Amino acid sequence: MPTDKRPGLTKRVLIDTALRLLDEVGLEGLTVRRLAAELGVRSPALYWHIRTKQELLDGMADAICRAPGMGPPRDDETWQDWLLRRARAYRAALLARRDGARVVAHARSLSHETVVLFERELAAMVERGFTPALALHTIAALTSYVNGFVLREQAAAAPESLDGAPAAPQSVDEAPAVLAAAVREGGGTIGGEAFEHGLRVFIAGTSAVLSQERDGPATASAAR
């Protein structure tokens, strides 16, 4: 029978259970009432540890963002290798959870520990020649790229589209000529190959911007 309190119930237990339940029922099915039932308590018992469902989502997103492979670069790691490793680890962490990208997209705040970890990432990039602003823009842009990419991957993998209608099948034979040729050559908008292409473009673009910032306005003017 559900109770108002349960020994050993902590915020960490709530988040871990919510992540497990997320894999079973998805974000739409994850409710405070369902989480309470899973834990064998009444809903009010959860509010000793979380004030709102948003706080629960923030905690879940925080746990996803601190997955293995995230965090600052190793001492001997270039910023290029680190960003590639970080992006791949982040994508894997999002894909490891049903609706993982949607959970992170709904987050409004992260824990103090994660903010400190992010500060260490920024400091490491500054040590590698970035300005603080460029370091922040770079990590934010890469994070947004991975989030958006995985949102599309997980939406494509869902049995139904977001409005509840079955996803329409697509045939290469019905596509325009150039698009059909691109698909036959292995091109695509989701999947590992498309993701890696985006990363290569991102690293190349970041290298160009970093060079311009290091060389100053003269190089930027010459490039134009």
Describe this structure in words.
- 67% of the residues lie in helices and 0% in strands.
- The protein folds into two domains: 1-51, Homeodomain-like (Arc Repressor Mutant, subunit A, Orthogonal Bundle); 69-158 and 170-214, Tetracycline Repressor, domain 2, CATH 1.10.357.
- With 224 residues, it is mainly alpha-helical.
- Residues 8-68 form the HTH tetR-type domain.
**Approximately what portion of the residues adopt beta-strand conformation?**
under 5%
Helix fraction?
55-70%
What is the rounded distance between the termini?
71 Å
Low-confidence stretches: 161-169
Q: Any idea what the CATH architecture of the largest domain is?
A: Orthogonal Bundle
Global shape: flat
Q: How many domains would you count in the coordinates?
A: 2
Number of strands: 0
Radius of gyration, CA atoms, in whole angstroms: 21 Å
The CATH superfamily name of the largest domain is Tetracycline Repressor, domain 2
The biggest beta sheet reads:
none
CATH topology of the largest domain: Tetracycline Repressor, domain 2
What is the residue-averaged pLDDT? Answer: 86
Structural class: mainly alpha
Give the count of helical stretches: 11
Under CATH at level 1, the class of the largest domain stands as Mainly Alpha
